[in-house]
Amino acid sequence: PVASVLEIGGVKIVKDDVVRDDPTNNVPDTIFSKLGVQLHRRAQHPIGILKNAIYNYFDVNYSGKFDKFDDLCPIVSVKQNFDDVLVPEDHVSRSYNDTYYIDPETVLRCHTSAHQAELLTEGHTHFLVTGDVYRRDSIDSTHYPVFHQMEGVRVFSPAECEASGMDATSYAAGDLKKCLEGLARHLFGAVEMRWVDSYFPFTNPSFELEIYFQEKWLEVLGCGVMEQEILKRTGKINNVAWAFGLGLERLAMVLFEIPDIRLFWSTDERFTSQFSQGQLGVKFKPFSKFPPCYKDMSFWINDSFTENNLCEVVRGIAGDLVEEVRLIDNFTNKKGMTSHCYRIAYRSMERSLTDEEINQLQGNVREVAQSKLNVVLR
Ligand code: PHE
């Protein structure tokens, strides 16, 4: 059962204000039910254990200078989430296809960067913000519409930069990379990692750190030197700063060898009992691998079709029983009609599914795809 009123960080949230039948609102019940869960505040959960280990690194290396926030409300204004961090008006991340909107001015934050400006304005110069973030996305083992980030910001005084003898931006960039490499060593010991140049509207230069995991390079954080404009607007004209945003699930998957991102939400004791407070080194032991079951589905799409919308339909019906939704065929006929074939992988982390159950799910998915997305099944 989903609570109808909850409170997060002193903010009262009424379910009917968040989940309602209104075209300017695209938050489904499945997402609402994640508000207030705050996996990052559970000391025995991998996400909470990781948060505390990162806190520990900062406490030790910066003698407690970083202020910590982990209870800021995930419902924020479009201004906080986008405008304040200089996300351009036409940026894709602002679209209803990528972000959960409660109304045209209010969103579920899609990153913890949404809190940068307010905390800078309040005068904080060293801070960490941990929280649940929300993104409409495709479905696979490393993507889930709710995940957790930790934001870090450090503002330098003009004197600190001058003392380095370098230009302020290079100094901040060097310090940032040193800080995050140190963090990676603190968490992982030896691990294969690489820096990749990147782009974010709020930093310049920008970088990403990738870690090698399950035969792939996995992006675990974005960072960079904060755009001067953000500092200027918060009243800091003579400072430089760095910022980073860590994906806690991605890091935890590597650290604890957790193979699928859905497991973080499992309440199965065979998952939860494997972790304990303060224990970073534990490797997750799968409690047995149940086989996936694949179902294909082909349909003619229309102009408004998006993969994210399909994924939300599938997630709405199958919940965490869906492991992956993958486009396996895509063609356009002579009449200009486009057909997509998706392969849906169903798999429970906890038990084996029956044929009957899967057929039922797939039947529902077909029906709802047809009625809600107006696609034409083939
Ligand atoms: N907000 C960015 C993201 O979610 C990460 C980031 C944070 C990048 C801070 C640079 C600086 O992808």
Automatic annotation (TrEMBL):
Residue span(s) of domain Aminoacyl-transfer RNA synthetases class-II family profile: 131-286
Protein keywords: Aminoacyl-tRNA synthetase, ATP-binding, Ligase, Mitochondrion, Nucleotide-binding, Protein biosynthesis, Transit peptide
Catalytic activity: tRNA(Phe) + L-phenylalanine + ATP = L-phenylalanyl-tRNA(Phe) + AMP + diphosphate + H(+)
Keyword Nucleotide-binding on entry: yes
Limits of the FDX-ACB domain: 288-378
Compartments where found: Mitochondrion matrix
Pfam families referenced in this protein's UniProt entry, alphabetically: FDX-ACB, tRNA-synt_2d
Superkingdom of the organism of origin: Eukaryota
Assigned EC number: 6.1.1.20
SUPFAM superfamilies reported in the protein's UniProt record: Anticodon-binding domain of PheRS, Class II aaRS and biotin synthetases
InterPro entries, sorted: aa-tRNA-synth_II, aa-tRNA-synth_II/BPL/LPL, Fdx_antiC-bd, Fdx_antiC-bd_sf, Phe-tRNA-synth_IIc_mito, Phenylalanyl-tRNA_Synthase
Predominant place of localization: mitochondrion
Alphabetized PANTHER family for the sequence: PHENYLALANINE--TRNA LIGASE, MITOCHONDRIAL, PHENYLALANYL-TRNA SYNTHETASE
Purpose: Is responsible for the charging of tRNA(Phe) with phenylalanine in mitochondrial translation.
Family: Belongs to the class-II aminoacyl-tRNA synthetase family.
NCBIfam families in UniProt: pheS_mito (TIGR00469)
Protein known as: phenylalanine--tRNA ligase
Species per Swiss-Prot/TrEMBL record: Protea cynaroides
